[in-house]
Amino acid sequence: MNAHDHALFDHLSNRHLNALEEETIFILREVAAAFERPALLFSGGKDSLVMLKCAEKAFDSGRIPYPLLMIDTGHNFPEVTDFRDFRAKELGAELIVRSVEDSMKRGTVRLAHPGESRNAHQSVTLLEAIEEFRFDALIGGGRRDEEKARAKERIFSHRDSFGQWQPKAQRPELWTLFNTKLHPNEHFRVFPISNWTELDVWQYIDRENIALPSLYYTHKRQVVERRGLLVPVTDITPPKDGETVEVRDVRFRTVGDITCTCPVASLAANAEDVVMETLEVEVSERGATRMDDKTSEASMEKRKKDGYF
Questions:
Q1: The pTM of the whole model exceeds 0.85
Q2: Side-chain-side CA neighbours of residue 208 (13 Å)
Q3: Eight-class DSSP state of 176
Q4: Is the pLDDT of residue 297 over 50?
């Protein structure tokens, strides 16, 4: 690519990112105007950090007008939860953390066995938090390119009084007009970066110089190969009999519960490097890195109908 082509690519990329940013800011302001008790789901991951950056711009120098909410499985990477706490404190934002472990103590979450992933059980704790704080809108970082069930979501995704998603009962969103009417005990899940792709997210991170947890960039980590994935070796995810532990150069494309999140082989040391890698990938980030997403579209739809993100 010569200098002229490179300049044209940067211009078109910036124009595209500006349009996505403007749409996201519009949606974030719409939530603040339309709902009484919204919250922004904030994990400390890259998508929620992009949303947070847009929220800063949406409300300029003023404080973000809704709290940040994290549903903690108790098996999250400490680098991510530490960064979550740091970023919330840096912004002076209210951070609410609710734990799956507390739901287990209450008996509302029961694991089939101690080693079961808690990831799917987050929906119970989330619904409990919605009831506790009477949230009427939850802003999430879901994107339509992640997997097929998420592609069926509206930007303003209605949930009934049981917190359930009914894909055939979603409201039309023509000309960016959103029907935000709610009946008692109902709420919305709002996805301001629905129209972003993984590449868009990384280009925006690069352009805006957004700080991320170190896990997103190359580092050496003990892993084992299992079913085509690189499974991180931790106290929670020890190697199985017969598996060989290797030290590999890896990074995480997405971060979540340790029991179901895998890194990929990578030497990408910064956002620009990741952008170049992302241009060449053929498998979605969840398909390539999430053990619990090796499931059917119908299975994921069922999770969402039960209240999952």
A1: yes
A2: 21
A3: G
A4: no
